[in-house]
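Issue 218. Parser rejects a valid record. Input:
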Amino acid sequence: MEDASGTSEFFLVKESLSSSSGTIRRFYTGFCFWRQHVCCCLASKLIQTNMEKSIIWPFYEPEEKTNSMQEQNEQYSVKLDDWDFDVVDKTTTILSIKEATDDNKRANNSLISSLNILKDFGNGFRKLKGQKIDVAQISENECTSSVCKLSAEEILRFGGQKFMQRIEFDHTFVDSLCSLSEEESRSVMLVERLLASAEKVGEKVYDIAIDLLNECDKLSYKTGHPVERLVYYFSRALRERVDIETGKNCTKGLGIRRMRDLQETLRSINACTIAVQDMPMCEVVKFAGIQAILENVESSKKIHIVDLEIKMGVQWTILMQALATQCSNLEYLKVTALIDVQSRTNVEETGKRLMSFAKSLHFPLCFKIVMVEDIFDLKREDLDIDPEESLAVYSQFLLSNMITHQDRLDFLMGFIKGLNPRIMVVAEVEANLNSPVFVNRFIEALFYHGAYFDLFEDCMRNNESTRNAMEEEVMWHGIRNIIANEGEERTMRHVTIELWREYFKRFGMVEMKMSDSSLYQAKTVVEKFTGKNSFTLEMNENFVTIGWKGTPLNSLSAWKFHKRSTFHIANYLTL
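Output the parser choked on:
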């Protein structure tokens, strides 16, 4: 079986690792075969059914779900913009600060804060700072010329420094631009103008902002250098924000619908195939995360996994293979997928594929779907938990999607705490994209997406159509939502692991250090991908950060619950 480039997709890697619990044999087996099988199945006609809320294969009967509303023990009144790690006042809690009520004070703080963020990026302070995990040595042919081409992130830093130069009347930086090529100098100027236009949009000086955006449009395109493509999409988002704020376009109210469209796009065959084939981010999360779960449940006879966002379910094929090789006394593995109504058909197909895969291994798998129309209706009995089961919870890029409804997020985390799992694995975007100060959020989003555009340039250079689809159908939706929308319309509110750590304390959650075996899995996955020398893996305290050329993109962490919560203390901390 071959991919678009003619490379064989079926491979088998057998690895043995030593751990305190004995030898862990890991199989990275037929992974791409499974991927192709998933895409073929999704392309087939979707089955329409009128099934009960709980769908179970093959051991358990569906349970009746009552209509009673589960009330929360605690109620909170938390503003969405409180989910912010952008701190100006050093005496304030590290979690958030309220926006200044005085307009002049807010404008001054905004400018100072924005310049500090640009300085941080320019000096490399926003790069990964943990213990680096060595992936691979740079080969001699990594640079084809005596001078390596600047990355998008480096050009963004140059553009940011040039912008600060104009603000601070500092001309010491001019000489450093002399060594740049004509194309790079043009890109630096483009970034400077984009930042200037964002500044004017933030100040609501729309006429000057539009003039600057017109200049950006002359030099930015959907094709070409990564920076040109990046500026093209950010310029569009700024124009849309101006139109919304000036009332020129009746686009208010479309933000939530657009994010729903994005979620559908992410569920599509092409988007999932792209994520698996061309970027190791998802694979690092899956293999390292599943390794962490395995180490905490491998001695159990009955294992129960609650997956909060199962998607294609590839991660559970990895776990099944590992358990099949080393757990001779296993009675069954139960996977429970919590889903919404819109996801039912796709997840039903996922369940069928997982059951088929388990059958091929002669593996005892039970797959259960719990469809949740309202998270407050969720009850422990819906999950059919056996007291003898070792329970684990897996959350991949879900929790940040719930920030717009923190009462629901609070309920979900309290519910999980009540389950008392042995481990909860959490994968999230590692970026500060929720600042209430627009220009700060713009800068953070620009550097974050700039790393991805640079990643696409290196990893998809032989597949331009795929790269264009990823940028236009996925990246653009995120950029537009972060830049053009505010309030409840702004649904993409990613925050960093530091903020999640503080939030999790509310529920008595304690970090579990990722093991050497998990780190080895992450390293092994990265080494199999194009551009492996540019991917960055770092151990930051107890969690793993995955980045591109030093810019953090995703985090992976593992947690356990203390019986006694610090909830009463954390009541005063807001996200």
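Fixed in the parser; the record now loads. DSSP finds 17 helices and 13 strands in the chain.
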